[in-house]
Amino acid sequence: MEPEPSGPPSPAVRAQLLATEHWSLLASRSTAQGEVLTRITIHLTLVSAGLVTLGLLGQAMPSEGGFPVAEVGVLAFLVVVGLMTQIRVGSVADQDMQYVVAMNRLRAAYVDLDPGVERYFLAASHDDEAGMRRTYSFILVEGASHVFGSSFMLVFTVNGLLLGLLGASVVSAAGGTVLLATVVGVVLGLAFVAGSLIWGIRHYDRTWRTYRPIRPHSPSDAGASGSAPGNDAG
Question: Which residue in 63, 79, 115, 192 has its CB near the most CB atoms, within 10 A?
Answer without folding.
Answer: 192
